[in-house]
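Holo model, manganese (II) ion. Inputs:
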Amino acid sequence: MAYRKIEIVTAPREPHFVGDGFRVHNFIPSGFRLDMERMNPFIMLDYGSKFHFPPSEQPRGVGVHPHRGFETVTIAYKGKVAHHDSAGNSGIIGEGDVQWMTAASGILHKEYHEENFSKTGGEFQMVQLWVNLPAKDKMSPPKYQGLTHDAINKYSLAGNAGVIEVIAGQYKDVKGAASTFSPVHLLNAKLNKGAKADFSFPMNFNTGLLVVEGSVVVNGEEAVKTDHFALFENEGEEFTVEALENAVVLILSGEPIREPIAAHGPFVMNTRQEIIQAFEDFHSGKFGTLED
Ligand code: MN
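Output:
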């Protein structure tokens, strides 16, 4: 059987700060071959590689800003983040937790380091992924899914070799906790040294992996190092991931949404007219209110 091969492995770009709290390497859409069309339905992936923040009395982060037309998924590996939005939802996520926010018709939110984490400082490592919405769902009501580590279903590999945490979609017979608007698989593979796991996704699903910890070999032939992103070809379905040392790997696979993309800053719609409408609605207060 032919494996699904790696198309390209991308090293992390120079980091930049989002607000003063998120030091991130952008992979989607600015990475080579990782544009929105190619990665669809994944339209943005910012990766905050492990970084030590010194103590701060004033929590670092990003102040109130809008979103419309997609979902923001925050996956915490180290550190803690507090979220508040204009739909009245709030939550704190820490190591192993995931926050799945559906901005859809429009939301204001703010994202800061959690207060106690700020005071003590410490290691911080996160992913923020934007998942596009089908046109028919872009103006649906906002939604918030706070997934604690306990609530995320896990598949245990034989012989205590590791676990596959199913954030969304499915792995083998284990279903993900998050509900999605289009078919998306989002997995955290936590593999002990020497462990090997196999993955299979439909050929047309755009698929990649990010090595968050350790290093792995894919299909027994290609090494992917810490903080690197591997994009798979859309040929073949199955691939294997083997841990060269204890590893954590984020695996994403989604069915492309075959609709035009009009993206501007925090808004991702289908047409330029809808982007202009988003700015108008935002400026006329239709996204609600949220205190800074
Ligand atoms: Mn945001």
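The pocket of manganese (II) ion is lined by residues 65, 67, 72, 109, 111 (CB under 6 Å). The CA atoms of residues 4 and 236 lie 4 Å apart.
Archived with the compound record.
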